[in-house]
Amino acid sequence: MGRVSQGCIVIVLCSAAAFANIKLPAIISDNMVLQADANDRIWGWGDPDENVTVTINEHEYRATSDAGGKWMVTLEAMKSSEIPFEMSVAGKNTITIRNIIVGQVWLASGQSNMDVPVITVLDANSEIRNATYPRIRLFTVLKDGGAINPVEDCNGQWVICSPQTVAGYSAAAYYFGKALHNKLNQPVGLINSSWGATSAEAWMSKSALKAKPEFAPIIQRCEEMLKKYPTGKADYTIAMAQWQKEAADDAKKTGKPAKQPTPFDPLIPPNGSSLLYNSMISPIIKYSIKGTIWYQGESNADRAKQYQKLFPSLIADWRQHWQQGDFPFLFVQLANYKVPSVWCDPEAWAELRDAQSKTLSVPNSGMAVTIDIGDANNIHPANKQEVGRRLALIALNKCYGRKTEYSGPMYKSMKIEKNQIVITFDHVDSGLIAKGGPLKGFTIAGADRKFVAARASIQETCFMRSDKSVIEVNDAAKIAVVIVENPDVSRPVAVRYAWQDNPESANLYNGFGLPASPFKTDDWPWITENIK
User: Fold this and answer.
1) Which of 75, 92, 103, 417 lies at 20 to 30 Å from 526 by C-alpha?
2) What is the CA angle 44-46-47, rounded to 5?
3) Where are the alpha helices (DSSP H) in 133-196?
4) Which pLDDT band holds residue 342 (cuts at 50, 70, 90)?
């Protein structure tokens, strides 16, 4: 199988005969957490037709390896338990896995905002000092370039969460896991497979990308990238120089400023289509999980319109390969950030957020809105505690039956009332509030499609009469709406909220203190409409 590392391609050849003794994947190892109430799978390699016995306490599971030396057993479902146990795997040799517990296992993936470690974020020293959680176990899939074809194993190990181990772990994943652990009082296993500056297509299988003709340009870009570096002799510096030359040539043709290179551009491994799926997802895809948390999108912002189809396709792809049905897929909407204009067009991040919102139509999905906790000057906002908490609120509600609110206000519908537009929302049982002063962040447009700042106000006790006028009624008929208007727009047709890359003034929340998601009521063409 071929493996791509940074700036080069290395060809690695493996054969079943190389296994000889029983071998287990890295993720099946000491300190691991098995998913509770699931038929966990244990798998590995040996000689062809080798008899393998997996023993847990007094339970034995038997398998015979196939002609390629592969074998797998499926365990009976176990209840969550912090009592550690051992598992032996016996063939021609015997392997003993120690200190196993059973609980809730979540996969964390995406790009740098999932990858950034605890040591770099808010209150790091205090958080690390107090991170004694022996029932939280952390497994990081080590970065190893990208693979041209799916590989069967990765590098990594399960570590017990402690002040000595947590500093380098994914901050978003850790705070999510800690919140679940504290609320559920169960062990939590966290698998971090993420890489900074990577695009969504790098995490998708080839079959998923090939299934839809509109993704053909993505595959073509990767193929062209691989052709440019067939011998692995082009190092990072040469590749970046080539990228800059091509960007300059494009700028001359289009008359637009040349885009600046990012640490890993699509022309440089591992950011080609399917390369990280092959090297960092494929090796763990048999491992039973409760669900996935995902923080990614920055690297796809210049193709936000395409992301509307790309992201749901990624979710469907993972669910198909995991063979666990529609497991929960929770994701983080991009935070507010002042994007450099040379990176992508203005409003591209706003469009990417809208594409993420539309992905909520995918069954068993959930979105944590972070439009209020970003940093205009740092693409990696420091408050990962709140990111983890908001993701955990979704998981607790959707996956564990806790009936508390998990989302801020979500746009539901609009009505045009003469020179006003009335906006209704979901997730407002606790009411609507304007945090810190008058309601801000709304714009309004007429048929000319020119958006201007709007005056917005919350109306808590109102309903629509048959003549569409708004009147006050008693508490029994309360609904929460926002009235949007501008005296210079006499015939409004559309409203947008927080529709900027860094909408600092947006301050609409519900009574649970969760922010409203950015939205637009129009379906006018996107600035990223034709970028593939």
Assistant:
1) 417
2) 155
3) 171-184
4) low
